[in-house]
Amino acid sequence: MFEIVAANGIDYAATASVGYIPDFLNKINKAKFVDGTSYIHVFAPCPTGWGTPTDCTIDLGKDVVDCGLWYLAEY
């Protein structure tokens, strides 16, 4: 989805992960000051749907970025 909105000239597009909260908060801050449309695609594991303990959510959010299954980007 990020690639689609970025390719169509959106004013601000980014990806984020709950594993990298400071990065996520920086992108939210940038998006709120954009004069136009902003889109942030967030990776957030669902403990219920994935059958994982809630205390693993942040670690899973880091692991997917670190192993290359999700990437952090801005357009």
Biggest sheet: strand arrangement: 1-2
Strand content is 15-25%
Fraction of residues in helix: 40-55%
> What shape does the CA trace take?
elongated
Instruction: Give the low-confidence spans.
Output: none
Structural class: alpha+beta
Output the helix-strand order. Answer: HEHEHH
Q: How many structural units, i.e. domains?
A: 1
Rg from Cα: 13 Å
Based on the structure, what is the oligomeric state of the protein chains? Answer: single chain
Return the average pLDDT rounded to an integer.
Answer: 96
- In total, the number of strands is 2
Distance between the termini: 13 Å
The description of the largest β-sheet is: 2 strands, parallel
User: What is the count of helical runs?
Assistant: 4
Report on this structure.
The chain is built from four helices and two strands, in the order H-E-H-E-H-H. Strands 1-2 form a two-stranded parallel sheet. The model has no long low-confidence stretch (mean pLDDT 96). It has 75 residues and is α+β, with helices and mostly antiparallel strands. The chain has one domain. 43% of the residues lie in helices and 16% in strands. Strand 1, helix 2 and strand 2 (38-43) form a beta-alpha-beta unit.
